[in-house]
Specification:
- The chain is an all-alpha fold.
- The chain contains four helices and no strands.
- The chain has helices at residues 10-28, 34-37, 40-43, 49-112.
- The longest helix has 64 residues, at 49-112.
- It is rod-shaped.
């Protein structure tokens, strides 16, 4: 079971998620970044209906692009985490083999020269 640290509480997770959202969205559609959303109604006051419709369509396309970018990021991060896990597993197994070898060698020395060791 994975336990959360204090840094991973709900508020912290939301901040991290907002940061990731803004990092991705800044490359797709800056209007849809967290801070920019607060000022959209002022920015587009008096906007004509055709322009508004086009902008909203652009936003929908931006959200779809965001989903694709997030999925690619997630897949990449997942694969990197699996590789790190495999490296750690291999390193742990190698350490265990090294320790076993040392233990076996120590026993063999005792058996070969029992009078040299008290």
């Amino acid at each position: 079971m994975i336990q959360k640290s204090a840094a991973q509480d709900a508020a912290g997770s939301r901040l991290d998620a907002a940061w990731l959202y803004d990092a991705i969205m800044s490359k797709i559609e800056p209007d849809l970044m967290t801070e920019a959303l607060r000022g959209l109604s002022e920015k587009y006051v008096g906007e004509e209906e055709g322009a508004r419709t086009a902008r909203l369509q652009r936003y929908e396309e931006a959200f779809a692009a965001f989903d694709a970018a997030l999925a690619a990021f997630d897949a990449h991060l997942f694969e990197e985490a699996r590789e790190v896990k495999q490296q750690r597993r291999s390193k742990a197994a190698q350490r265990e083999r090294t320790e076993q070898t040392k233990d076996v060698e120590a026993v063999e020395r005792l058996l070969q020269h029992p009078t040299e060791h008290p």
